[in-house]
Amino acid sequence: MPYDVVMDVPAPSSGVIARASAVLTALSRHEPDGSTTSVLAREASLPRATTHRLLADMAEAGLIDRDVRNGRWHLGSQIYLLGTVAATRYDIVELARDSLVSVARETGESAYLSTRQGDETVCVATEEGSFPLRSHVLQVGTRFPLGVASAGLAILAHLPKEEQDRVIAAITPEPTWRDPHDGAGIRRRIARTRRTGYAENPGLIVEGSWGLGAAVFDSAGNPLWALSITGVQTRFGRERLPRLGRLLMDEAHNLTKRLG
After folding, report:
1. Could you tell me what percentage of the chain is helix, strand and coil, using 3-state DSSP and rounding each to the nearest 5?
2. pLDDT tens across 150-177, in order?
3. pLDDT of residue 7
4. How far is C-alpha 55 from the geometric centre of its chain's CA atoms?
5. What is the pLDDT of residues 198-254, one digit of tens each?
6. Are the CB atoms for 252 and 215 separated by under 8 Å?
7. Closest Cα partner for 255 from 131, 109, 102?
8. Are 49 and 8 in contact, with CB atoms under 8 Å apart?
9. pLDDT at 238
10. How far apart are alpha carbons 119 and 183 in whole angstroms?
11. Which residue ranges does the record assign to the HTH iclR-type domain (predicted)?
12. Up-side HSE of residue 23: CA atoms within 13 Å toward CB?
């Protein structure tokens, strides 16, 4: 495997599905607190009336619920049931558990498994390390655009250049992110990732926090997941980085083989 403005008009069924998916994805970012119709409409780039109609239809199907006390929307029981069925085919958390434990034990840092979902990565599993200080950048459910945190950068670095360009052009930096998150900055980090084999996030999301990531591939060679570690900056000195990167790549390669 490689290491080297939306009109509020009736839409065809495919358009409805895409819109509903955008609303569900936006809602997932707000769990467990839930979200309002207005916020979901803004994040899904849809008119409020369209979003409310989609939410009502999905609530009727059990895909989402509404808290009658505060009016906030939540993912529903049907989403959970569908997810448990799909997990038998797509869930790699159990396969990755040994890798997460090994990485956390060998490095002392917290280890994470993230999966690609469209142009984002979602953290799906964690294993705490023994070192008492942690960066708290990641937890299960945390999302970042591809190319931002170390896991997403590791995946992006192994995508075709045309796809890289499309993803980079769509990134809107958050005010709290540290520069550079422009196209040139991300491309420099992609080039470095291709050279070393692992991605590095030198405090670009949270000052004083450091992260490393390595891509995990499916049987067709597609980078669909990433193993990563995060910790405080003082734990990622230049003399230690290569060893941490190599260990992470070795474990990502082992997981790739198990998936194959």
Report:
1. 45, 20, 35
2. 999 999 999 999 999 999 988 887 777 7
3. 34
4. 24
5. 999 887 777 778 889 999 998 889 999 999 999 888 888 888 889 999 999 999 999
6. yes
7. 102
8. yes
9. 84
10. 15
11. 14-77
12. 29
Which of the four pLDDT bands, split at 50, 70 and 90, describes residue 79? Answer: confident
User: What is the spatial distance between Cα 138 and Cα 130, in angstroms, rounded to a whole number?
Assistant: 16
Residue 74 has pLDDT above 80, yes or no: yes
What are the tokens at 255?
Answer: 């997981």
- Residue 41 backbone dihedrals phi, psi, to 5 degrees: -65, -45
Helix spans in 12-160 (H): 13-28, 37-43, 48-60, 77-90, 93-107, 150-156
- Two tokens, residue 220: 């067709």
Token match 């955008």: residue? 22
Domains (range + CATH), the chain: 13-83 (1.10.10.10), 91-259 (3.30.450.40)
Query: Cα separation of 226 and 211, whole Å?
Result: 12
